[in-house]
Design goal:
two-stranded antiparallel sheet
Length: about 80
């Protein structure tokens, strides 16, 4: 049996058609899918590729998490780690 997946399809301002996968059913509710579709279609109308935009946002979140991890190390932990080597 196949998977059920929500997607939105539209045309990027300027011409190119784009299909964006929103998420699998039932993990993504109908209302959540509708909201994501609206956001994706609005980005398409503005000339922004939602897939590229999503990748950029993911990279930004990863950078923020790495920064938080780095800032969570205390000087004492750093010194202990340094002198163990």
């Amino acid at each position: 049996m196949g998977k059920k997946v929500f997607f939105a399809e539209g045309r990027i301002k300027g011409g190119k058609s784009k299909r964006v996968t929103l998420g699998p059913y039932p993990e993504l509710s109908f209302d959540e899918a509708k909201s994501k579709a609206r956001k994706s279609l609005n980005l398409l109308r503005e000339g922004v590729d939602p897939i590229v935009q999503g990748k950029l946002e993911l990279k930004q979140r990863e950078k923020e998490l790495a920064k938080q991890d780095a800032l969570s190390v205390t000087l004492e932990q750093l010194m202990e780690s340094f002198f163990r080597l």
